[in-house]
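FAQ: What does a ligand-bound record look like?

Like this one, built around zinc ion:
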Amino acid sequence: MYPTFTFYSKVHIIKNQRYCECGIIHNYRRIFEKKDLKQVIFKPMTEITCTPCKDKFKLER
Ligand SMILES: [Zn+2]
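The answer part, i.e. the structure of the complex:
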């Protein structure tokens, strides 16, 4: 299972506190609130729909 968040209907893999694997910033300061932490959902790789995220994830591991 991987930490993910959904952005524009695509499921991205979260890389660190600020970025997902494809470089999108998921942790904007203005939305960094309790409710947004719930957007981080652990999902299996088969449910990741962002191709750049999947590709980078595989390259780095
Ligand atoms: Zn992505």
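Follow-up question: can I read anything off the structure? Yes, for example: The beta strands are 2-7, 10-13, 41-43.
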